[in-house]
């Protein structure tokens, strides 16, 4: 099974997204006061931009490089447009197309899309707490609304109208299926450096509240996730019994991603300990650890993991050395990470297996 973007490019995009995520978090740390972090806040009129009425208005708030990056992300040619205003109008028309919007947004998290839909029913300007802003910023939803550094979101009227027509029961059902399959594909693509049709199908069928058939999987892969599924049945033969990688649980697939690391007890314990003993917002610690999970999983060393925590949370190195509890918790978290080089297994699982073979 082939995809238009190869695995190496996807890994580069993942690393780029991680870096952008950290930069955004640092920026928002400066904008938010400690007592407003993570809670809803009312803005006064001077902080709200009432001039955003159409998608063109949203795009005008971006620089032209950002507008081009939107088109590039969707694989749309734009070389013929040399005038900035023409390019903005062209981009807005592309994004406003109902079928295009369907393909762009159906891949996103159903809960996030429901939240977006409910907000299209409210007043033009609304404020989201910090976690909501971070979630919106790293989805295709960000192409359809304006999000500023203070934390408020504006959905233009033309997008409200189109999305309200789009968001019906059929779309909601499709959204649940597509997003779940996307999670399975992302797990396989990241953890095994390959996407095998039969393996993704077995992952998708772990979810019992919806049945994913071969036909459904092929439709989603080709129509919404940009894969080419070969018609040569010999190419797709896969012996699951000979698969030597770790096969994930439903929960692990569901929580896999840049901002949603596995719900690891050791990572949770580390986050709680740092938040309590070093007086750092728990949300900030959890966000960083979720991002670092992807780094460690992709090959970062224990030293790099520890240094990243120290640098990002501004904890002095001597405090790490003098705190044995922290050191132990970091060791446990590191060992509790599923690794790409081990095809999804953890270090301690491999060590346990090796020990059993020796004995």
Report a brief summary of the structure.
With 359 residues, this protein is mainly α.
Question: Could you characterize the architecture of this molecule?
Answer:
The protein is mainly alpha-helical and 359 residues long. It has three domains: 32-166, no CATH class; 169-249, no CATH class; 265-358, no CATH class. It has 18 helices and five strands. The strands form two sheets. A three-stranded antiparallel sheet has the order 2-4-3, covered by helices on one side. Strands 1-5 form a two-stranded antiparallel ribbon. Strand 3 (146-147) and strand 4 form a beta hairpin. Mean pLDDT is 80; it is low at 31-45.
List keywords for this structure.
58% helix; 3 domains; 5 strands; mainly alpha; globular; single chain; 3-stranded antiparallel beta sheet; two-stranded antiparallel ribbon; 359 residues
List low-pLDDT spans: 31-45
The pLDDT mean sits at: 80
- Main-sheet strand order equals 2-4-3
Number of H/I helices? 18
Q: Layout of SSEs?
A:
Layout: E1 2-3, H1 7-31, H2 55-60, H3 64-73, H4 84-96, H5 98-105, H6 110-120, E2 125-127, H7 130-137, E3 146-147, E4 152-154, H8 157-166, H9 169-191, H10 197-204, H11 214-223, E5 227-228, H12 250-254, H13 265-277, H14 282-298, H15 302-312, H16 317-321, H17 324-335, H18 347-358
Antiparallel strand pairs: 1-5, 2-4, 3-4
């Amino acid at each position: 099974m082939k995809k238009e973007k190869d695995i190496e490019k996807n890994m580069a995009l993942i690393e780029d997204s991680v870096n952008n995520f950290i930069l955004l978090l640092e920026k928002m740390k400066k904008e938010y006061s400690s007592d407003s972090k993570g809670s809803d806040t009312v803005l006064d009129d001077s902080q709200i931009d009432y001039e955003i009425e159409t998608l063109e208005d949203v795009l005008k708030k971006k620089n032209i490089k950002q507008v081009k990056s939107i088109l590039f992300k969707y694989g749309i040619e734009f070389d013929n447009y040399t005038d900035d205003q023409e390019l903005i109008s062209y981009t807005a028309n592309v994004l406003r197309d109902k079928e295009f919007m369907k393909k762009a947004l159906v891949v996103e998290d159903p809960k996030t899309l429901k939240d977006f839909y409910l907000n299209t029913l409210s007043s033009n300007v609304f404020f989201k707490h910090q976690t909501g802003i971070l979630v919106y910023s790293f989805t295709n939803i960000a192409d359809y609304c304006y999000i500023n550094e203070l934390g408020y979101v504006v959905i233009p009227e033309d997008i409200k109208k189109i999305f309200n027509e789009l968001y019906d029961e059929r779309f909601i059902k499709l959204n649940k299926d597509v997003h779940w399959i996307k999670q399975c594909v992302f797990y396989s693509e990241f953890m095994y450096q390959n996407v095998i049709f039969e393996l993704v199908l077995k992952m998708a069928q772990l979810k019992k509240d919806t049945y994913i058939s071969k036909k459904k999987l092929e439709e989603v892969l080709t129509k919404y996730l940009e894969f080419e599924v070969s018609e040569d049945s010999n190419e797709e033969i896969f012996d699951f019994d000979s698969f030597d990688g770790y096969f994930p649980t439903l929960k692990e697939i569901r929580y896999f991603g840049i901002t949603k690391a596995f719900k690891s007890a050791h990572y949770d314990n580390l986050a709680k300990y740092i938040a309590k003993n070093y007086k750092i917002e728990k949300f900030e610690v959890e966000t960083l650890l979720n991002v670092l999970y992807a780094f460690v999983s992709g090959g970062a060393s224990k030293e790099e993991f520890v240094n990243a925590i120290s640098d990002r949370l501004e904890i002095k190195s001597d405090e790490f050395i003098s705190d044995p509890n922290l050191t132990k918790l970091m060791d446990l978290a590191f060992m509790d990470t599923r690794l790409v080089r081990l095809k999804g297994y953890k270090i301690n699982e491999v060590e346990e297996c090796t020990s059993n073979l020796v004995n």
